[in-house]
Amino acid sequence: MQSQREYVLRSVEERGIRFIQLWFTDVLGTPKSLNITPAELEDALDEGMTFDGSAIDGFSRVQEADVLARPDLSTFQLLPLHDDHHSVARVFCDILNLDGTPFDGCPRVALRRVLDDAHDRGYQFFASPELEYFYFESLNPELPLVPLDSGSYFDLAVADLPSELRRQSVITLEEMGIPVEHAQHEDAPSQHEIDLRYTDALTMADTVMTTRLVVKEIARRAGVAASFMPKPLAGEQGSGMHTHVSLWKNGENAFVDLADPYGLSPVAKGFIAGLLVHAREITAVTNQWINSYKRLVPGHEAPVHVSWARNNRSALVRVPVNKQGKPNSTRLEYRAPDSAANPYLAFAVILAAGLAGIEGNYELPIEAEGNLFSLEPSTLTKQGIAPLPGNLNDAVDAMEQSDLVRNTLGEHLFEWFIRNKRAEWSDYKSEVTKFELDRYLPRL
Questions:
Q1: 365-382, pLDDT tens digit by residue?
Q2: Which of these three, 103, 129, 163, is where a domain ends?
Q3: Pick from 103, 129, 158: which residue ends a domain?
Q4: Do the beta carbons of residue 53 and residue 65 sit within 8 Å?
Q5: Residue-averaged pLDDT of the chain
Q6: Reduced to 3 states, what is the DSSP secondary structure of residue 171?
Q7: Is residue 409 part of a domain?
Q8: What is the pTM (predicted TM-score) of this model?
Q9: What are the C-alpha distances in Å from 55 to residues 59, 238, 322?
Q10: Does residue 152 share a domain with residue 50?
Q11: How far is CA 206 from CA 209, 232, 255, 414, in A?
Q12: What is the CATH number of the domain that holds 40?
């Protein structure tokens, strides 16, 4: 049986691949790549590719700059976005120190570390996110933001451009071996959604990065633009990344207990409790931009309260109803993350919070009932339902006090993330916005 290395080398030769892109991300989830030719591939597979880490946000200081990009051969895939005359493949990389040890500034390494912790406890962590995004005529901030359609939920359009772009994106993903569960028009004008089929969390984080690139590139080729910005349109719902998760143990779904009234095992209840206890601490990671908190407001189907419920979309943690006769589809849906999160870090803190709830035997609070958006703050307080952070500054304050997030990300990522977000908030506070000019300039 040929090794993964032999398969990659043979594929490059037989398919006439001219370039191999080595993909990784910075701390905030911005995609990065090194491009190599087939002549350099064997060295890259054996030794990794050295590059200057100080050039990447959150990686290295100048005096300790060089790091290694080590390809993960299981992620090798031909990119159908390129024509046959210039065949290009991609492979995701872990970033290592020059001595071969994991580099503390690599988000993919951080997720691996938490997954290894779960594995040591006998668990596999699976995820399935719903990626929402918008199509616009242009993303030039100097021009009006013009959606490409005026559709709403599940609108069927046979020949409009956004629907065709979405179809092309799904087809491209399928050609890359990335299964899509379904795709649809979302509620807001020109808002669309692609739901990715369940797989292990590391593969899924890679898949989220790939999906965002594919969607944007196909839109660019059509002369338009796609954006995963959490809240580009005032008065409309934002783009979430509702993430369905489950733990499996010994080949079975560890969240299932058919004897329980909810169908949830103690593992599932502990996981939910962990998410709720640590929700405020992890929100800066799952919702890392100032704009993220324009989405987390009442009335637009985004959670604003730390709560759980069955099939209640106003709750932070939702327990979806299983299809009849399929208990192994039992899962939890964490509804806070947005589509612009770094998926490696977002999945890492979600898993860490859930594991903390299991290991710490956290008590699951009472299920929230009714539409939480319609309840008065005093009523929510009496029920013990706290709000999520209302802005990035509050979220970073909560994160900074969190041992769980610090231990999950590691000191390097944690400290850099805090500094970066403090600087972003400082810049935002000093900015005079159009809202202020429109509201105050004429009358003050």
A1: 988 876 666 666 766 766
A2: 103
A3: 103
A4: yes
A5: 90
A6: helix
A7: yes
A8: 0.94
A9: 8, 32, 47
A10: no
A11: 5, 25, 25, 21
A12: 3.10.20.70
